[in-house]
Amino acid sequence: MRNVGLLKAILALLTRHLSLNHYLTDGIVYRRSEALRYYHTTLKYIHKAMQYDDYNTSDELLATALIISAYEMLNSGQQDWERHLQGIFGIRRSQIIHGDSGGLRGATWWAWLSQDSWAAFRDKRKPFTFWLPQRVDFKQMDSWDLAARSQFLFARAVGYSAQRLGNDTADHFCAKMDEANVLHAQLDSWKDSLPIEFDSLPHTVNDEGANFKTILIHPPAFAVSVQLHYASRILLSLHRPLLRGVNVFLDQQRLLRDCIAQICGITRALTDAASSILSFQYLFIYCGNMCRQYPTQGGDSYAHTNVSSSSRLASKVIGRRIT
């Protein structure tokens, strides 16, 4: 680790994470003030280093900015987090970095999109990105590209859900329906193109008494991408204009129940901290939109999902405790 700014950014994020999760520290107490010290040291380093043109276009700046953004996410600094996400967006735009960029730059773009999509959902806004992928045939992609593309479709769904009808003119209604139909077709195409690696595997989890059957998909990155897919369908279904009629309403409810079962079933099988936290975000989407309609089933999803204890902090956002 030769870059001091990147090292301090990692220490800031790590210390802040440990200060929020005392059970990981074996009795050692990490305070928020320690993380804050590393954070300010990082900002001072970036401020000085940006006087040099080479640093402004370096991979180190991209990685450091992304890690600091993750720190702001944990630190509950919504305005600071938003500012850093916009800053990273500006850096990437100036250097023409996008989802098809290879190497570290492409990886940081996808990590940034994941953060920005979640922030956009919380703030009821569209994600900052306006990149349109050149490769659109899912059947020509490998499994890892398919998993990443699920994140892009989720960002599209978040952007769609942030729109307001504004006026009820026929043209506006039709335009919103057309956009929903295009996104729905893309989600269908993604699902139909999944190879065998995304199929559910046999498991030994006892599902007796559970409302949601365990769905084991390995590796966890593929499992999370499938959860993203169903979270996208939930957002699209709840925000697209619906024609009147009991049958249309019943079809929507059936779709939502199926999506919830998939998200919660996959969550039951995930045990690693990173995937569990992401799963909790999708459960947050479920709770925010569905708890009023399925209060009993919603409670069961928390009682029976195997979310690691590192996600317990996130449960405060929901207002329920994970057991």
How would you describe what is shown here?
66% of the residues lie in helices and 0% in strands. It is mainly α and 323 residues long. It folds into 2 domains: 1-124, no CATH class; 132-323, no CATH class. Helix 6 (103-123) packs parallel to helix 7. Residues 291-323 have low confidence and may be disordered.
List the helices and strands and how they pair.
Blueprint: H1 4-20, H2 32-49, H3 53-56, H4 59-74, H5 78-94, H6 103-123, H7 143-161, H8 170-192, H9 220-239, H10 246-269, H11 273-290, H12 295-304, H13 312-318
Helix pairs in contact: 1-2, 1-4, 4-5, 4-6, 5-6, 6-7, 7-8, 7-9, 8-9, 9-10, 9-11, 10-11, 11-13
What's a concise summary of this model?
The chain has 13 helices and no strands. The protein is an all-alpha fold and 323 residues long.
Residues in helix, %: 55-70%
Largest sheet: none
- What's the tally of helices? 13
Structural class: mainly alpha
Number of strands: 0
Q: SSE order, as H and E?
A: HHHHHHHHHHHHH
Q: Give the overall form.
A: globular
Radius of gyration: 21 Å
Structural features:
single chain; about 325 residues; disordered C terminus; about 0% strand; 2 domains
